């Protein structure tokens, strides 16, 4: 069931829902979770274990439907250790795909046009990583 049919779905709202859903899922797995400032350059989530001995830096990409994941223009920059793609954010149970940054970089598509360079990840290149929570582990 789509829980948000009629409201305007701005990209900022899609991003917020995905970010906080990822935080919720990490918290359920025992991580202490700190979302960073929205639209700031850098990681989206800093997570640390209950004993504060392990940390994770995470970039979250949010989508309202099945679609390629945009990674921006110019030079590709994935500075977090992990990337979480949160898809179908307005559904009852959004889908989450968990990848290492290195896995994203190996699968990224690059397009070059007169407007410049763009980077994206096709659904077929990330769908095998659905609910791969074992990569992040428990906090």
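Sequence proposed for the structure above (139 residues):
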């Amino acid at each position: 069931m789509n829980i948000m049919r009629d409201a305007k779905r701005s990209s900022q709202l899609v991003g917020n829902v995905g970010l906080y859903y990822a935080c919720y899922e990490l918290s359920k797995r025992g991580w202490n979770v700190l979302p960073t400032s929205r639209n700031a350059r850098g990681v989206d989530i800093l997570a640390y274990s209950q004993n504060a001995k392990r940390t994770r830096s995470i970039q979250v990409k949010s989508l309202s439907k099945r679609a390629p994941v945009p990674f921006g223009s110019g030079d590709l920059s994935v500075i977090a250790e992990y990337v979480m793609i949160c898809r179908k954010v307005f559904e009852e149970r959004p889908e989450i795909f968990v990848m290492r940054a290195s896995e994203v970089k190996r699968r990224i598509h690059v397009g070059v046009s007169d407007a410049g360079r763009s980077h994206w990840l096709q659904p077929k290149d990330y769908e095998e990583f659905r609910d791969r929570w074992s990569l992040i582990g428990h906090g």
